[in-house]
TrEMBL record:
One of its GO terms (cellular component) is mitochondrion. This is Poly A polymerase head domain-containing protein. It comes from Ascaris lumbricoides. Its cofactor is Mg(2+). Keywords: Magnesium, Metal-binding, Nucleotidyltransferase, RNA-binding, Transferase, tRNA processing. The lineage of its organism: Eukaryota, Metazoa, Ecdysozoa, Nematoda, Chromadorea. GO terms for biological process: mitochondrial tRNA 3'-end processing; tRNA 3'-terminal CCA addition.
């Protein structure tokens, strides 16, 4: 897999280690920062390195040399070259300050891009309008808050190496092929080395030989400079280590003692590292260490009692397949709530969240059908072809394939899911319209029914055969199909309660209580309880017939006639009451004009506040009695 990349036999045969080098370690991967320089060099002349040396890079290097500045490749690019990989991104370091680089590029007519990085010492230039180069001035961390550091520029390469997180990331590469290692990063990659000359100041070659991931200098200090380095340690451990449990306890102790610092790291940065851990080498074992041994779960937004055993099983079963990070992590979620908590912490994309929800919802059912290829095919069709499906950009095939990997389905099923050509459902809405089915809920119900029949036929049933299954009962309108009446939304819970209270007001009961309050006779109290109320003979329709307009005027007229009807002891008839409508009664006045609505002031009077808290029913009765 790693092609015994680094030809260590050739490397050792050359014996290019400096004979004056002495190594000193403290227990495990936490080592002292010795400022005395100890240099080991090796010459790197690999195909991967030569392929990077473009005419543009040569021009850039010549420019720095001509102006008495040094330019070297730095960090991860050097690590990848030593592992026999062509780096995707290349960072350069220089002893030139940003202002010196800007002056140099301006004088030579070289375009500069992305000037936002100048504060941290990074200048991006474009050579001959063909290739971009990102160059960062050597620097040291002056003030660290656990997230971002305040830096100060330096010309000392060793001090710059000292501020980096891991020994394998503290390497420099001269553009003539000389690799410079101040902190033993080469030793961390030793079993995977290519030919070349390495410079080692702090015993990194031994780490490389042992494939050991170690912090530069003191682990606690490195972690406290940026707590994200905890996750970076685990990510690179998966890439470099010999086995999934080859951690040194002193390193884990430093992580455990400083893990609370992860609370201050943004979810986006957490997720960027975590998803690489999930799909890296030994992903299941590394996650187990992070959760079970180091107790990082809650700090990452994961449940405390994670099912790491299933997580490890899924990873190991699919070791020769690519996995989505969320496929591995879904084993740690028990329900939707766990997913929501993790999403809130790490800010997942819609696709990532949808995959987790899909796996958690379907995993038990999928395990019961683990040997059924048709089950997984049906699921794909449900997300890709089903009537009324959610038409968001969700790839049903990819989701179902990840589900099959999650439940450890056979390799044949996983392979078939990936290449299966989906059939087309032969019935459309137009076909149903031709048979007299109405659009809307009924059509959706019929299409869904026929779609299920088509799946049961193993996708063989033709259009006419499916249409023959449309029965009168299937197209019958039922309560579910009837549209719901839309009512006005309540403005607030308070207004809704008031409306409810108004409906519950019983005038007879209120008056009867009033009679008791004033000590009326028993006969009156009794009669109030059994009296049959007469019907007021005039309605709004009657008034419209006489030309009265709806609104405040109609309410005033009805109220006036109602009082007359009561004075007649409820004997006045409709026509008699309508004869009392006069021109003055229906005349528009200022009271009838609508008022402008403004915000209600909150009462400052405590008595009014108390009254506002009373239910409408209680308040009305109180006012009525008074």
């Amino acid at each position: 897999m790693w092609r015994e990349l680094f030809l260590w036999s050739r490397f050792f045969a050359r014996k290019q280690f400096s004979q004056s080098v002495k190594y000193s370690f403290i227990a495990g991967s936490v080592r002292t920062t010795n400022v005395s320089k100890r240099k080991i060099t090796m010459k790197l002349d690999s195909e991967e390195f030569r392929s990077l040396f473009t005419p543009e890079l040569k021009k850039l290097n010549d420019l720095f040399i001509a102006n008495k500045f040094q330019l070297r490749m730095a960090g991860g690019a050097v690590r990848d070259l030593l592992m026999g990989l062509r780096p995707a991104d290349i960072d350069f370091a220089s002893d030139a300050t940003p202002s010196q680089m800007k002056e140099l590029f301006t004088r030579e007519g070289i375009r500069m891009l992305n000037k936002n990085g100048e504060e941290h010492g990074t200048i991006t230039c474009r050579i001959d309008d063909k290739e971009n180069f990102e160059i960062t001035t050597l620097r040291i961390d002056v003030v660290c808050d656990g997230r971002r550091a305040k830096v100060e520029f330096t010309t000392d390469w060793q001090l710059d190496a000292n501020r980096r997180d891991l020994t394998i990331n503290s390497l420099f590469l001269e553009l003539d092929g000389t690799v410079i290692d101040y902190f033993g990063g080469i030793e961390d990659l030793r079993a995977r080395q290519l030919d070349g000359t390495v410079i080692d100041y702090f015993g990194g070659i031994e780490d490389l030989r042992a494939r050991r991931v170690a912090f530069v200098g003191d682990a606690t200090q490195r972690i406290q400079e940026d707590y994200l380095r905890i996750l970076r340690y685990f990510r690179f451990f998966g890439r470099i280590a010999k086995s999934g449990d080859a951690h040194e306890q002193t390193t884990l102790d430093a992580i455990i003692n400083n893990k609370q610092g992860l609370m201050n790291i943004s979810g986006e940065r957490i997720w960027s590292e975590l998803k690489k851990i999930c799909v890296g080498r030994f992903g299941g074992d590394v996650l187990t260490t992070m959760v079970s041994r180091c107790g990082l779960a809650s700090l990452l937004g994961l449940p405390e009692d994670c099912d790491v055993a299933t997580c490890r099983e899924i990873f190991n079963y699919n070791s020769d397949r690519s996995l989505e990070p969320m496929t591995v992590l879904s084993a740690l979620f028990k329900n939707q709530q766990d997913i929501d908590v993790f999403h809130k912490r790490c800010k997942l994309s819609n696709a990532e969240k949808s995959l987790a929800e899909f796996i958690v919802e379907k995993r038990d059912e999928a395990r019961s059908n683990i040997d059924s290829t048709k089950y997984f095919k049906d699921l794909i069709l449900d997300y890709e072809k089903a009537p009324g499906r959610d038409k968001k950009k969700i790839n049903g095939r990819d989701m179902v394939r990840e589900l099959a990997k999650y439940v450890c389905a056979s390799a044949e099923i996983i392979e078939e899911i990936g290449v299966w050509k989906m059939p087309e459902f032969p019935v459309s809405g137009k076909d149903l319209i031709g048979t007299g089915v109405k659009t809307g809920p009924i059509m959706r119900r019929v299409l869904t029914h026929l779609f299920e029949l088509w799946k049961k036929s193993e996708y063989k049933a033709e259009r006419d055969e499916l249409l023959s299954h449309i029965t009168p009962e299937l197209v019958q309108v039922n309560d579910v199909d009837r549209p719901k009446k839309r009512g006005k939304k309540r403005r607030s819970e308070d207004s809704g309660k008031e409306l409810e209270d108004k409906k519950k007001i019983n005038g007879r009961d209120m008056v009867r209580e009033l009679a008791k309050y004033v000590c009326a006779s028993a006969e009156i109290i009794e009669e109030i309880g059994v009296w049959k109320m007469p019907e007021f003979p005039v309605s709004g329709k009657d008034l419209i017939g006489t030309g009265v307009k709806t609104g405040p005027i109609m309410r005033r007229v009805l109220t006036h006639l109602f009082e007359l009807w009561k004075k007649s002891e409820y004997k006045a008839e409709r026509d008699e009451l309508l004869s009392h409508i006069t021109p003055e009664l229906v005349q528009v006045n200022d009271v009838d004009r609508p008022k402008k609505r403004g915000k209600k002031r909150r009462s400052e009077d405590s008595g009014k506040e108390l009254e506002g808290e009373m239910s409408v029913r209680s308040r009305k009765f109180f006012q009525f009695c008074c």
